[in-house]
Amino acid sequence: MAEPTSPLERLRALQGADLPVHGGRTLAYVYDSGEPEVDRVAREAVAAYAASNALDPTAFPSLLRMENELVGFACDLLDAPASAVGTVTSGGTESILLAVQGARDSRPDVTRPRMVLPATAHAAFHKAAHYFGVETVLVPVGRDFRADAPAMAAAIDDDTVLVVASAPSYAHGVVDPVTEIAAAAAGRGVRCHVDACIGGWVLPYAGRLGRDVRPWTFAVEGVTSISVDTHKYAYAPKGTSVLVHRDAGLRKPQFFASAAWPGYTMLNATTQSTRSGGPVAGTWAVVQEIGDAGYLRLAGQAFDAVDAIVAMVDDEPALRLVVAPDSTLVTLATDATCDPFTLTDELVARGWYVQPQLSFAGDGPSIHLSVSAGTLAHVDDLRTALRESVAAAQAAGPVAVDAGVVAFIEALDPAALGDDDFDGLLAASGLVGASADGDLELPTRMAEVNAMLDVASPAMREALLVAFLDRLQRPVRAGGPA
After folding, report:
1. What pTM does this model have?
2. pLDDT at residue 469 is higher than 90
3. CA gap 63, 52 in Å, rounded
């Protein structure tokens, strides 16, 4: 076969190695409506605005109008009061970063700010803490994986600038007791942020479909801000999210202005300055295309797919739900006859990408599925793939990490390891190898890699994966390997 010659031909060839973003079988990272017309509208809108810059709303007023309409749609979903304001960001992490930064900067009197998080809060809050110098106070969750509201309340002190709840938590798909958490925060005069990045565009429709949903919106007194990702279940292109505040005063510390240089006075609503108009236009066009009635229909399809997956898990003796899902996230675990990491590999080999989750805080590994509307049409295929994958994993037996290797890993101090040490560990773990021409070669099956990571401490996992990312991201120079 001839080598691709044009950039677009090469692009298509490169994309052939990626996970599929359509077809409802990629159950993490992407969210598929299953509707080709939605994808067509998104592509055309992104292309039309790819060169536009949302940095200056007076230069591109159409983008300002689109952003304000998107925030308005979100406000209606979130039971926001008339005083509410919002911002379109690049994704859930940026929305969370801004919620934390705004809370910190709203309290200049606090020299060592803290935020109270349930242990299941998204890792983006830890990233925000790292960036902005806010101490995290982690509160263990209950056996139902929901935040422990009394323990959260007890953790609030005079240095607390933010309290966080999830709707739902990513790892387990359950909604925290927002009413109790927000009341405790309000009682101490502290902001309460609800991370609804993955659930905020489907949970309102779940309630309208008659499903039981715990209160979590601005209808709950004490909730001061909510993040909801449009590039998740609004089925918009990557990457957009909306951060909504109860009123403009709460949002004000988020804004940044600087006239301390000879150029234009910088004025930003987000962490970015230049922002492509493509994602904004693509998101606005998708929301216009689908509309409220369309989102209700798509939510029904996603929840029907969730119910079908729950039933198939119940039918497999080797599988169990970690907890009954409140939203569109399903987390399952295996019994001793079925290795979870091998099961993950077997599902991937059958065209179903699911996400392994390593052991944490005494709970064993699990498997995460983010279910989309587009998954519903393929649940019979998933049922077959799951049955075959369980049988194959049981036949293969458990993935065992040698006891000596376990002891060696446990004895290591990741802070004391150098590059050569990490290169050896990466090679030993199977995370990277070398091809005949010296390029890095990624493993095709991950069970043994995940089993080794699973016995490592969280600090060692972080250090190994940072080293892994460092090795992956190296320049490809002109004339070098393609």
Report:
1. 0.94
2. no
3. 9
